[in-house]
Specification:
The protein is of the alpha+beta class. Among the domains are: about 35-90, no CATH class; about 190-230, no CATH class. The protein has 8 helices and 7 strands. The chain has helices at about 35-65, 80-90, 95-125, 130-135, 170-175, 185, 210-225, 230-240; strands at about 20, 25-30, 140-150, 150-160, 165-170, 190-195, 200-205. The radius of gyration is 29 Å and the shape is elongated.
């Protein structure tokens, strides 16, 4: 599995664009559908379904044996059932099977959370909201993207107490929700000015990376600053300033 990172700066620069910050506060790799973990999860799901079928079958056989006159420790099964049991054995022992099932559950949860985070980020981007702030809002419903007349429309699917699903345009829902409206000022992507060396001002939309403006400032400062050839003289000048 790809290593998670506590800070974005810890991620190798070449890989940063492939990482996203999750609810646990760490940076995890974005897992595409072609990732081995996704394929492995599908394999585990198939094995789990097969195993559950075998367990149901063996339970039924045990109950039938108890109702018959077989000796202790014996069970009567048909040839076809015996053949199925032989197919089941290569899947491993019950303990090994449990490990596979548990692993499947964990991978399913990770992939589900990954897909939801990806959807919420795209929604916030399309509606002009700050991604990092939006994905942390509590009690968000499910959202669905629908294409109409060549344009993507986001729909909020609100589940009522009785289980009924009510659909509403996502933007309308967000701007009218009592749980979200107090945070709207923080969600809006605004313009921010950053003073550069020489009194220049740089204006641009806030970046998803909260340190992006500092990185841009440092880069510009380095490009515009004159190199120090006499470090001793430069130190004295700073001390006397």
């Amino acid at each position: 599995m790809l290593q998670p990172y506590a800070n974005q700066t810890d991620i190798p620069e070449a890989l940063r664009e492939h990482y996203s910050k999750r609810d646990d506060g760490q940076w995890h790799a974005d897992i595409p559908d072609t990732h081995p973990a996704v394929k492995h999860n599908a394999k585990l799901l198939s094995e789990k379904n097969t195993a559950e079928g075998k367990v149901t079958q063996l339970t039924s056989e045990l109950e039938s044996a108890r109702a018959g006159n077989l000796g202790r420790g014996q069970v009567a099964i048909s040839k076809s059932e015996a053949a199925l049991l032989d197919e089941y054995k290569p899947l491993g022992t019950p303990a090994e099977l449990k490990v596979k099932v548990d692993e499947h559950v964990k991978l399913t949860e990770k992939i589900t959370q990954h897909d939801r985070d990806k959807s919420l980020r795209q929604l916030s981007k399309d509606l002009g909201f700050n991604e990092e702030a939006f994905i942390r809002l509590p009690n968000l419903p499910e959202f669905e993207a629908r294409v109409k007349d060549g344009k993507t429309e986001w729909i909020a699917k609100i589940k009522g107490d009785n289980g009924t699903i009510t659909e509403k345009p996502a933007k309308e829902f967000i701007e009218s929700s009592a749980d979200i409206t107090p945070f709207l000022p923080s969600l809006k992507v605004t313009q921010k000015q950053v003073e550069l060396p020489g009194g220049q001002m740089s204006t641009g939309p806030l970046q998803t990376d909260p340190f992006a403006w500092a990185k841009d400032y440092a880069k510009t400062y380095v490009e515009q600053s004159q190199p120090v050839t006499d470090t001793f003289k430069a130190f004295n000048e700073r001390q006397s300033a």
